[in-house]
Amino acid sequence: MDFDALINGLDRHTLDGITRGSIYALVALGYTMVYGVMKLINFAHSEVFMVGTWTVLGTYTVLGATAGMGVGMVIAATLLALLAAMLASAGTALAVERIAYRPLRKKGAPPLIFLITGIGCSLVLVETFGQVLRAFFGPPFGRVTVNIPSVIETKVVFTIPGIDLPVTNTRLLIIIGAIVMMIALDTFVNKSRLGRGVRAVAQDPDTASLMGVNQERVIMLVFVLGGAMAGVAALLFTIQYDITKFDIGFIIGIKAFTAAVLGGIGNLRGALVGGLLLGVVEVYASQIWDSSWTDVTAFIVLVLVLMFRPTGLLGESLGKARA
Amino acid sequence: MPEHEIVGAEELKDTSDHDKIAIETSGAVGEVLLEVDHVTLRFGGVVALNDVNFDIRRGEILGLIGPNGAGKTTCFNAMTGVYTPTEGTIRFKDQEIAGTKPHRINHLGIARTFQNIRLFPEMSALENVMVGCDARHKTSVLGVLFRAYRVRPSEGELPKSGIRRSFAKVFGISRHTLEERAGRRRSMELLRFVGIADRAHEVARNLPYGYQRRLEIARALATEPELICLDEPAAGFNPAEKEDLMGLIRRIRDLGHTVLVIEHDMKLVLGVTDRIVVLEFGQKIAEGTPEEVARNPKVIAAYLGEPDDAA
Hints:
The complex is a heterodimer of chains A (323) and B (311). Chain A has 323 residues and is mainly alpha-helical.
């Protein structure tokens, strides 16, 4: 146990945790929205994120983007990668909904069936992706970790006075990007007509339908929005960590799901709170013990929180999230 | 603790502008609007509706009555797309609707309230009604997300301040924004119509019982239905509130809606309806004007038991 390491760099580690947590939070939105509307854990959501990271790599490759380009090119490449990742992830999410869930819904399958199809869908996507990569691009692609060019050069943009904490441009981008997306989504759900439909279905699907809300359209919408958020998360992840892998989604997915439960699944703001908390706890744990204890600590915290607040920290449903 | 707060009748005055909420109807008063054509509905071995046959004419207030378990609510459910009839069919404006999805039937022009109140509990009263209004909006998903469909606004719609006003003049206002505003105005007007506008911004689950019942009616009216089905709207009301409700039902008809009402309270049904259909054990046993039905021995027997026992 090394509390000194944590205390000495507390500001730095907190910033580190928030960065990590922002990404968890964005991915968690996908779990939480789908759960809010369908009472279903979409286990294939991790692969929605994975597809996003590869799309970023693909976009960079096509554009020939590398480290050390001019500012204009960096911005253009990043924005294009963002757009592509959002589209690819949203498309994947929508495809999963169409192929794995909609047919079951039409047949009125019990909830357990959805769960197992989701897991199956996730596995199929991961393994197929690995095989296809190897088949088309040959080694080193396939089942290994691949580097993604750090298009944005990491620089210290300012230092927080008083505690002398240097803040880099990439961290700033990740945190601000995540917060902007969350505010946008929150506003959408609380203030727009479609958001009202989403909340209506979350609160009472049958009544919503009798009041003219098209339930199928609302379901499509939450998958697309959740997917797009995972796409944003994928870009931010590649900016921070510069890598991807065919099964990168698994661990991020589990963590994001944990974050969603921690904050109160079904609650958009809960996803943010849960994500940030989880990120910070993980980084602290890796300092106090070592990184192999990260996950153990994270899940102990989850269990402790759920023991005292079984519905998660904010413990409300998507329907209840109000402006 | 009392089951619900009693709301003084004077608080529930209609202060709305009827011109703003009246609906356009697509046909003449008196013609058949909805036709329940020999509908049978079975759940396994249980026959919930047995060859039920009646129609609803435009502009009337039709009562659907019968003892508990007679199949009244089941009949509503079949009409609004919750159940599909096992046999027979239902036609609305000459279009077959049996087996159509509930939201489609709502778009065609049938709305309903529920015997056990089913509001969106965590939304404000106003938002509940706006969900109903949304059913009539035209902007697509992409139109909402990107606000791409711009409309040249009228003078009254323009923002008052400088930059935003100039912007709106040049680029127009998105149709979504205009529809949203119109929906909000109409929703407020409907809340005034049912007399509960004073608590428009309160969360629905915190509203008193009488308000919740009225809110359900306002939400159903918001979808601009040609036919509105009220499922026991007076349940749990005191005599003063029932009196009020009768007035409200008549005013709903005056807006251009056709009304179908399920009710247990005979005084209310006889007082407000033009015609009555009586169900018992899933079968229609009588149909006619309130006077005819009130005199019908079968109906009296169904409500009071067999005449021999009653004597």
